[in-house]
Each structure stands twice: as structure tokens, then as C-alpha cells.
Specification:
- The protein has 387 residues and is an alpha/beta fold.
- The protein has 3 domains: 261 residues, Metallo-dependent phosphatases (Purple Acid Phosphatase, chain A, domain 2), CATH 3.60.21.10; 56 residues; 42 residues.
- 30% of the residues lie in helices and 24% in strands.
- It contains 12 helices and 19 strands.
- Strands 6-5-4-1-15-16 form a 6-stranded mixed sheet. A 6-stranded mixed sheet has the order 7-8-9-12-14-13, with no helix packed on it. Strands 17-18-19 form a 3-stranded parallel sheet.
- Helix 1 packs parallel to helix 2.
- The chain is globular and about 75 Å long.
- It binds manganese (II) ion.
Length: 387
């Protein structure tokens, strides 16, 4: 069976106030073409379908159209789980109704791992669907003396409960922060992760599955073994992802033990996301921009030592989709080192002082008298509310 593994669609994603919906629609159309060309029969979507728990109306329309084309027009089966960005209840809408048409949604873990069986010339193929889970949410399904202190424990316990037939072919969809031993996956800023690193699940918990279709991390990569993978996102969703090579993850699963994985297909997005750096004269010179797509999403880093008049205006004239502009010169470097060495004193400073530092860092000047007064007032009022 030929299977496409997708994850982290984040439909409705907004980067620096710019909606990427048009780019996402384009990308989903290209993916549909590849599904046809590659004769994909089953599509797995491993969570973070939407970017927000209450997706805007236009995002819902985009997902609806994508799924409609797959299921109704192409007769492709779809298995989809919820990620941490999705609202479980909302994503679960219609699951019993759509299942007859081949759209299988699992957004809520209810004490039993959901399983969907498919058949092909090689026999049975079991697709297990584990939506994003947190330890606190699943405790109710286990005895109190069972230790579920971590995300790792949670996934382990959930999977141990199941009787997986090792003679059959088994795939699982899971949306967690999965690591292999002490090796951290390559991450970006756009994955919301819990601080402290306790959210990780070791890949060994999925040992009984022939393939682990992971979601959550935005860079396509294997975790511990070739057959446990993050498919990554279809588009770059943050400037920390500009160097990632997004690709499609296509499986050709024949008999048990015969699983081929192809990550060679890439799709050129409508607009790329990239960082440009240099003196403004260089960035806005025809020599430089004429070789590139000026419609790309740009973070411009300007390195001029002297003040640049209307830098954002000049940059946007050439690159209309500039989302971010930073200035990095010897002054800003010095400022940053100062800032970092000050961190030790942070506990000794009050809120107004800290805000003033932040403001200074952002604007290269301190708050003036009246701004200081406003801040003092705000802090006072917030503190009053806390009590
Ligand atoms: Mn996620």
C-alpha cells in the first residue's frame, strides 16, 4: 500500500501578522497532485491540523475542501489525529458520520487506543491512532498505583494496554515530543514545547510498530530508526525553519518487513521564507534581488553602522512580504552582550526596571518620565488585582 505521511498542517497559521492561508491552499493543491501521481491510497495526518483550537472560518473551509477532494474525488482513505494545537472536541466533530466514507478522525483518547483495519494484497494493515495526550488527562483510565508521572509514562502505559499482533503490519500515528536516547530532534521556535524538557517520550515505547508516523516537530527527520519519523510541515512556519528542507514522506508498505520510505519529493512553495543579511544598499540592489523571488517572506537583517532612513520602507519596496527587520551592527552587538551579563541581577530588579530595560533593548533609548509614570501605574494596578 502506498501511504503519504503528513503532519502539522497548522491551517490558518499566521507569522508576524501575515496569514499563510494562500500559501497553504497552494501547497495542499500540489500535495493532491502528488497523491494522484504517486497513486497514494492512504493519507496519515499526525496532528496539529489547525493552528488554533478555534480555527477561523476560512481555515475550516480549506481543510474541508482538502479532505473532500481526497475522500470523495480521489477515494483515498484518511486517518487523522489531534495535536496540541487542535481542540479535541471540535476536531472530533462528525467522526462517526465521516468514517463510512473513509475519513477516520481520532482526537480524543478515551481509554482505548483506536484502531482502523485496512486490507491490501499483502493482508491486513492496522492503523493505530493516538491523539496528543498529557499525563494528567489519561490518569483516569489507570489504577491509582500505576505511576504516570511523565509524558513518557503516559504513552508507554497507553500502548502497553493494547494487544498488538506482531505478525500483522502495524502503523501508529502519534503527536508527541519523541526523542531517541538522549538525542534531541532538530527543533524550531514554532513548536510549542513545555519548558524543562519533561515532555519527551522515548521512541522505544513504539517498538512494536512497523512505522511510527509522528507529528509535532517541524523538521522532517528520523527518530532513532528509519521507520520512526517526523514528516515535518509542508511549509516553513518560522524564521528558525529557513534552512530546513521540507519534503513529502511516502511509504510503500508491502509485506511485513518490506517497507520503503521515500523522502525525495519536494514541492516548491508559492513563496519561500528566507533571511537576507547585509548593508541596505546591497539588499536593495538589482543584482541581488533580480535573482530571487521578491514575493518571498523575508526577514531582513541590516548591517549598516550608520542610521538608515526608513529602512522598512526601502526594504518593503523591493520585498513587499518582509515580515521582520532587524538591525545588527557593532552597536547592537555591544548592547546584546550588556543585556546578557545583566541577567544575574534580574531578581534584584522590580517590574518597572525590568520593563525599562526591555524597552531600552528594543528601542535603543530609555523610557521618558511620563512613560515611566504610566508603567508604574500599570504595575501597581496589576499587583492590586493579583491580591
Ligand atoms: Mn504540535
Amino acid at each position: 500500500m502506498k501511504i503519504l505521511h503528513l503532519a502539522d498542517l497548522h491551517i490558518g497559521k499566521i507569522v508576524q501578522e501575515q496569514s499563510l492561508l494562500e500559501d497553504q491552499i497552494y501547497m495542499l493543491e500540489q500535495i493532491v497532485k502528488k497523491i494522484e501521481e504517486e497513486k497514494i491510497e492512504l493519507v496519515l495526518i499526525s496532528g496539529d491540523i489547525y493552528d488554533r483550537s478555534v480555527p477561523p472560518a476560512d481555515s475550516v473551509i480549506v481543510l474541508n475542501n482538502f479532505l473532500k477532494v481526497l475522500v470523495k474525488d480521489l477515494k483515498v482513505k484518511v486517518c487523522m489525529i489531534a495535536g496540541n494545537h487542535d481542540s479535541k472536541e471540535r476536531l472530533n466533530f462528525g467522526k462517526e458520520i465521516f468514517a463510512d466514507d473513509g475519513l477516520h478522525i481520532c482526537a480524543i483518547y478515551d481509554g482505548k487506543l483506536e484502531k482502523k483495519e485496512f486490507e491490501d494484497e499483502y493482508g491486513k494493515l492496522n492503523i493505530y491512532m493516538l491523539p496528543y495526550i498529557k499525563p494528567v488527562e489519561i490518569k483516569q483510565y489507570f489504577d491509582e498505583d500505576e505511576k504516570i508521572a511523565s509524558y513518557h509514562d503516559a504513552v508507554k502505559k497507553v500502548l502497553e494496554k493494547e494487544n498488538i499482533n506482531k505478525d500483522e503490519r502495524n502503523i501508529i500515528l502519534s503527536h508527541q515530543f519523541v526523542t531517541a536516547g538522549n538525542v534531541e530532534p532538530e527543533r524550531s521556535e514554532s513548536e510549542t514545547l513545555i519548558l524543562g524538557g519533561t515532555e519527551n517520550v522515548d521512541v522505544s515505547v513504539y517498538d512494536q510498530f512497523d512505522y511510527v508516523a509522528l507529528g509535532h516537530i517541524h523538521g522532517p527527520q528520523r527518530i532513532g530508526r528509519d521507520t520512526a519519523r517526523y514528516s515535518g510541515t509542508m511549509l516553513k512556519y518560522s524564521f528558525s525553519e529557513v534552512n530546513q528542507n521540507k519534503c513529502l514522506t511516502i511509504l510503500d508498505f508491502k509485506e511485513k518487513g518490506n517497507l520503503k520510505i521515500d523522502t525525495s519529493i519536494t514541492i516548491k512553495p508559492l513563496r519561500d521564507m528566507r533571511v537576507i543579511k547585509g548593508p541596505i544598499e546591497e539588499l536593495t540592489s538589482e543584482d541581488v534581488y533580480s535573482k530571487t523571488n521578491r514575493e518571498d517572506y523575508i526577514r531582513a537583517i541590516i548591517t549598516n553602522e550608520e542610521q538608515v532612513y526608513d529602512a522598512i520602507g526601502q526594504i518593503k519596496k523591493i520585498y513587499p512580504n518582509t515580515l521582520r527587520l532587524d538591525i545588527k551592527n557593532s552597536k547592537s552587538e555591544i548592547q546584546q552582550t550588556l543585556q546578557i551579563s545583566d541577567l544575574d541581577d534580574i531578581k534584584k530588579k522590580d517590574e518597572v526596571e525590568l520593563f525599562n530595560e526591555f524597552y531600552q533593548y528594543q528601542n535603543n533609548q530609555e523610557l521618558n518620565e511620563s512613560q515611566l509614570d504610566i508603567m508604574k501605574q500599570v504595575v501597581k494596578e496589576v499587583k492590586k488585582e493579583e491580591h
